[in-house]
Each structure stands twice: as C-alpha cells, then as structure tokens.
Amino acid sequence: MGYGYLREISVDQVAEAVKRLCIESNVKMPAELSYAVAQALEREESPAGRKILKQILENHRIAAEEAIPACQDTGITLVFLEIGQDVHLIGGDLYDAVNRGVRAGYIEGYLRKSVVKDPLFQRENSGDNTPAMTYVEIVPGNSIRITVVPKGAGAENASALRMLPPHAGLEGVKRFVVETVEAAGPDACPPYVVGVGIGGTFDRAPLLAKKALVRPLGTRHGDPRYAVLEQELLEEINQLGIGPQGLGGRVTAFAVHVETAPCHIASLPVAVNLGCHVNRAARVTL
Question: What confidence score (pLDDT) does residue 3 get?
Fold first, then answer.
C-alpha cells in the first residue's frame, strides 16, 4: 500500500493540520458521540437525565452550526502522531511545528487558553495553550496520522492509576475501575467515556488509558475476553446511578474502552482516564 519509498513531508503541513484539528475538535463533535447520546436518551428513564441528554444534543448542534466550543474548557491539547517509518520530515523541528499549530488554532479559533508555564511556582498562563502534550509513535508506511484531543481538567483530575498486585486479578481490576468512576461522581461531567489501560509500566498504563479514549465509540477490543470486560464494566458503572451530569439515572457512561500491554510478572498496572460527555477528538492523515 505505497510502503517502501521515502516520502518527504514538511513540518509546515503538520502545523497547518494541527491548527485545523484544534478548532475542529472543539466545535464539531464526532458523529459516533452524538449517536451515543441519542442512544442514551432512548435508554434513560430519569426525567432529569433525559433533559440533560437533550441539552447535550442541542449543544452539539449549536457548536457545529455556530463554530463555537461545545465546552468552555477547551482543554490542554494532546497531539498523537503516528509517523510512518518511510517519512522524512523536512523544514524544521517537529515539536516546534506542533506547538505552532496549537498556538494558531487556539488564537484563530478564539479558544480558551488553559495551560500554565510552571505547575507549582509560576502558574502563569502561557497565553496560547502551548506547549502541547505530544506523543510520537513510529509505524509502518509513508504517511502521518495526526489525532488532536482537547483534554478538559474535570475529567483529567478524576483519573487514577493503581499498581495492583497480580493476584488482584480480574475482580481487582474491575473493582478499581468502578470505584474510580464512583469517586468521580458528577465532578467530571458524565455521561463518561471510560478509558482503561491495563499492563505496561507505571508510565505506560495511563498512556494506554488515554489512547483508549481516542478509539471511536462503538468499537470493541479485538480480543473477545477484553471486549466482554468492557461490556461488564459498562454495565456495572451504569448501575451506580450517577446519571447524566450527576443528577441520577441509568446512563453514567456511554462506553468503556480497554487497551492493554504486556507487563512484568510481579506487576498489574491499571489506569483509568475519564472522558467527559464531550469526549472530543479530530484526526487526519497526511
């Protein structure tokens, strides 16, 4: 499929794509997300929950038609780059280009800037939502797949990591995931998309959980055992009664996505990264 020859791609193309995706991801909700809200509306029995879900759908429509953010928290910008090994990037530094794109997108799109320069001693706003959190993966091929995710603080702050002992097993993993969602309650703006990373290391599991959120709604894990786990977790979470925006109801989460990686024999890392009811993402392939 076009592999085997070197292809030059300018970092200026990356910057332009990131700029466009920053705006698009904030104002145009993925079609599968709007569909999930509509499906949830059919299942929800709580009057308050149904009212909230109708408002969410209306919010999606207004955001797209008027090109305004679906949520006032336009997030810290996550940029996932899947770069083909037969790509030769030219024209400058890749990370500078990504931040140039974020800067232009957030300024030209009139998006709220939410990044501080220093986490503790100098919490001064950078003024342009940079730097982005950039994740690079080398893959086969000669193209670049770019995914931009504006990650709001409410959902991010409710996320968690636990280094379980291996003997905790399946039940320990399920208990930790459900307890994390229960502890979040209404704070991360449900209904949620729940990203779960299992395996890897202390740092890898949270990245797996983040990547799980990027997976399109309606898809299942390729391993049928984990697909069953996703469904079981979704059912348990939706029995918590938190409901849309925490006002009670049957729909606390739209979906649970699990991603996995091999791990050490003495470890069972598990991370939960929550996505709020505007679990936003936009992507393009160069």
Answer: 54
277 to 59, 190, 243, 256: CA distances (angstroms): 11, 6, 11, 13
79 vs 57: CA distance, rounded Å: 26
Q: Where are the domains of the chain?
A: 7-27+70-151, 154-279
Rounded distance, CA 253 to CA 173, Å?
A: 18
Distance separating alpha carbons of residues 260 and 37, to the nearest angstrom: 27
**Residue (of 201, 219, 212) closest to 159 by Cα position:** 212
pLDDT digits (tens, 9 = 90+) for 125-174: 999 999 999 999 999 999 999 999 999 999 999 999 999 999 999 999 99
3-class state of residue 280 by DSSP: coil
Biggest CA-to-CA distance, the chain: 58
- Rounded Cα distance between 194 and 206, Å, is 12
**DSSP E strand stretches across the chain:** 7-10, 76-84, 87-90, 133-139, 144-151, 160-164, 192-200, 253-263, 268-275, 282-285
